[in-house]
Amino acid sequence: MNRFTIASIMLALILLASCGGRKGITPTDPAADAAVAGVISNHYDREADFETMQGKLRVQYQTEDRTQAVTVTYRMKKNDTIWMSGQLLGIPLAKVLITPDSVFFYEKISQQYFEGDFSLLSDLLGTPLDFQKVQNLLLGQTIYDLRDDRYELTQSARGYQLVPYAQDVIRKMFLLDAGHYRTMAQQLSQERENRSVTVTYPDYQVVQGQYLPKEIKIIASEGSANTRIEMQFRSIELDVPVSFPFSIPSGYDEISLK
């Protein structure tokens, strides 16, 4: 998980974040609102319930001129800490530590590190980015809180599609599974900027009675440039003791975001 892989994941999250923001609410009839509220309530009622998680995942990063795959060991304390350690052929490459207030990572090949908070990254990029968005992406929850907007609901064999009434220049779409109300896809786009991000969840798995993603695919596009990220989750354990060892090796150069 070198800087290219870390940057690609952050890129997808940043693009998602940049398409955010609550819009004006368009009035609808009470029956339609009640149906939407029921779907949204079921989505949150079925959110995976656990305190800690650990496992492994395979991350493949691909652009037009570069493809790389790494194995990542990850640990999570829900709503508190996300820790990842990337390896290639058993050789440690990088570590990442994310908390609600801070982002840390270091990469061994270039011997560089970053430490800061989400406000630093958000100010630099001019878009909101936070811990909850990262956690939601990994757990199969919608990136944004669906309770913050009003939606048009379309039901089909694929599931429940939610599209905000007030789209403005930003297009949003969320697709939830009809059986378990898990996220199947979420798409955000800005036509004027020719920018979009599509996140799909091709498969879920049941771990200790909890539905969790087995695979996540992300396609981030801006102009003619496309980045694809595929994550395959393996050997997940819930509610086990976890630790988050992290210390930046001496002699590493800080990555300055100025």
List the helices and strands and how they pair.
Blueprint: H1 3-18, H2 30-45, E1 52-62, E2 67-77, E3 81-88, E4 91-98, E5 103-107, E6 112-116, H3 118-125, H4 131-139, E7 151-156, E8 159-164, E9 170-176, E10 183-190, E11 195-207, E12 210-222, E13 225-238, E14 253-254
Parallel strand pairs: 6-14
Antiparallel strand pairs: 1-2, 1-13, 2-3, 3-4, 4-5, 5-6, 7-8, 8-9, 9-10, 10-11, 11-12, 12-13
Seen as an oligomer or otherwise, the chain set is single chain
- Cα radius of gyration in angstroms: 19 Å
What overall geometry do the principal axes of the alpha carbons give?
globular
* Nearest-integer average pLDDT: 81
- Beta-strand segment tally: 14
What is the H/E string? HHEEEEEEHHEEEEEEEE
Report strand order across the widest sheet: 7-8-9-10-11-12-13-1-2-3-4-5-6-14
The residue ranges in which pLDDT falls below 50 over 5 or more consecutive positions are 1-8, 10-27
Strand content: over 45%
The N- to C-terminal Cα distance equals 24 Å
Q: Give the count of helical stretches.
A: 4
Q: Characterize the biggest β-sheet.
A: 14 strands, mixed
Helix and strand composition category: alpha+beta
Question: What is the helix fraction of residues, given as a range?
Answer: 10-25%
